[in-house]
Amino acid sequence: FYGHYSYISPIRGKRPKGFKNIEDIKYYHDCSKKILAKYQDVFNSIIDGKSVSGDSGIAKGKGFTLIITEDEKKRDNPFLETPHQIERIPNACKALTLINRYPSMSRVVDREIEKYIKQNLPSNLKLSRGINLVTLSRNFYPSLCFNLIPVDVLAGIFLSMKASILYCIEEAINKDYYDIPVMTFFNIGTKVGGSQPRIHGQIYIDLNLDGHGRRLEGYLEAFKEMGENCHLCHTTHGDTDRIILNTEFWTFYNTGSPVRNYHIRFHPNEHIRRFSQLKVNQINDLAKCLKIIFQALDDLEIDKNRNILFNCCPYGYDANFHMFADVIPHEIIGGAEMADDMRVARKSPNIAAKEIRDSLEKYIE
What we know:
Elements: E1 2-3, H1 22-27, H2 44-48, E2 52-53, E3 59-61, E4 64-65, E5 67-70, E6 73-74, E7 84-85, E8 95-99, H3 111-120, E9 130-137, H4 151-174, E10 182-188, E11 200-206, E12 212-213, H5 214-226, H6 231-234, E13 243-246, E14 250-254, E15 264-268, H7 280-299, E16 306-311, E17 324-329, H8 335-339, H9 349-360
Parallel strand pairs: 1-12
Antiparallel strand pairs: 2-3, 4-7, 5-6, 5-8, 8-9, 9-11, 10-11, 10-16, 13-14, 14-15, 15-17, 16-17
Protein name: HIT domain-containing protein
InterPro entries: ADP-glucose_phosphorylase, HIT-like_sf
Organism: marine sediment metagenome
């Protein structure tokens, strides 16, 4: 199946908020180094291996979770039933991937509970199965401030995400799951779904075995029509006037049909289908490029609240697909955009690309 679908998760509203108030949010727009040593967030109890208290003295957490990967090293099985208390994470670690405690899908369900749920669900609903992961930096770096995030830490986040995807897919296949869509993304800032100030990525591994969404279907159909003549392998992106950065491993450009103003699309120059196929040199270059592009957007005073979305071929699909990704700055949209798959943009993509190229010049070595 494909089309529009919804995950209904009552516990999502119970997620701890990393920003206490408006002043707290404004503080993290400052992006000076003084904020690095100040903040205690919900992840400190896991990283430090001990209970961490908030300003009110109430414990934020006791460090119970499942760590799927520490950097690229496998830790807990993604289908392990019981979280456990974590020992202090070594300083040498750059990033770790955890089970998301407030997921949109059920990872493990007791048989009796599953039976009860299925008996009581309305006929048009089903119990959603899958794995939700969150990958974070070991040390605190605010997601709104890419100028403060070391390139090797950002690369470490990507590497941990890659390793965790491969581990989870391996274990899911062992449990007879197949045809597995994987959504890899970053919500950077409260306006685009980021509830925590620490830089972190997320992964949704859908184990429902019932297809994918309408947007992915459009991409799959487009690549099917291309056949061996892959558009991303051959296009000049508007005779280069929309390209903002081209390296040995990546091409970044402003898309001709922007979802938001300054919408940036990028893809590996190698024809690969999935995020988990990226090599170390590609990941290192991606981290370097994203850091300077985000700084260039900051200098243009583009909203710091941004999504990064990686579009990949689901596991088990025998489809020709060239992985690509989007950087989408936050904007308020109107009714016309919600009524159809369209956008009324104010900035011509070639002009937006030139502005970003000019802003990038000082960061390119």
